[in-house]
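Handout for the seminar on molecular recognition.
Each group receives one record of this type.
Step one: identify the two inputs.
Step two: read the structure output and locate the region that could contact 3-methyl-2-ureido-butyric acid.
Step three: write two sentences on what you found, then compare them with the reference statements printed after the record.
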Amino acid sequence: MTRFIHVALGQLGPIARADTRVQVVARLCEMMREAHACGAHLIVYPELALTTFFPRWYMDSDGEINSFFEREMPSAETLPLFALSRELGVGFYLGYAELTSENGRQVRYNTSILVDRGGTIVGKYRKVHLPGHYEHEPWRRFQHLEKRYFTPGDRFGVTEAFGGKIGMAICNDRRWAETYRVMGLQGVEMVLIGYNTPVHNAPAPAHDDLSLFHNQLSMQAGAYQNGTWVVGVAKAGIEEGVDSIGGSCIIAPSGEVVASCITKGDEVAIARCDLDFCALYKRTTFNFDLHRQPHAYGMIVERKGETLRADGSPLG
Ligand code: CDV
């Protein structure tokens, strides 16, 4: 039996600082309706899809910072998206800033959720690779304060949903081979990734002209080397004076792009993705059991209080 997911890219154009959650959710709902009309089962929205990309500003007051965060999901403002998901039978991936409490302390994460076709949250992921810096750096044209505003997540997992094994990552995660490989080792068949990537890279301006190329390069390599579909979705365009790349696309386990957005605004594009196509790569070129050589990679793992080599042998 062949397993297909009809996946829609739900690329967003800019969100202004003054835009309300209600306005943004209305845009997300409109795209979900369009995706449904095109036959989608799942729509993927970007990272931090409910607000402007606020880490570009230095803030000190908890009240101001927390105004960009969600205390619950669904919330009163996001409930219409969940209701529409249930009505249309379209699941979604949504990135947002999460404010929670752990041991009586407030903790902030850069989070994404996976919602099934019945409007129920079936997976949650917290961004592991947080880019940028902690303090105000006035030499930059704009700040990138993710390290200040977020605590890093601590794991990559795979959720059984939409008839397959679905993984999530967020923006900077897509540049790291480990992101795909850790989920690849769990048998992932589709990795969903939302991103906000300014064209200008302050610490490395020589890379500005390569920002779209590096986006594609990372995701195509991750797909091919792990025999998985990869769905990357941008918040694109000029937002509060900062230009961000588009380039949202769906990549097959062959590494080939099968659908992409062509604007830097709100745009839906769709592809029919055969999850069984992953097996062709997973059982041949990237048959991990047959061809990986973890003992040669110098990897060590912790298991039940013991430190072991990746092949399970004792370290000493
Ligand atoms: N939101 C991000 O994680 N952006 C980074 C930028 C700072 C390079 C990215 O990897 O696209």
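Reference statements: Residues 47, 131-132, 144, 171-172, 175, 195-197 surround 3-methyl-2-ureido-butyric acid (CB under 6 Å). Helices lie at 21-37, 62-66, 79-88, 146-149, 177-184, 211-226, 277-282, 288-291.
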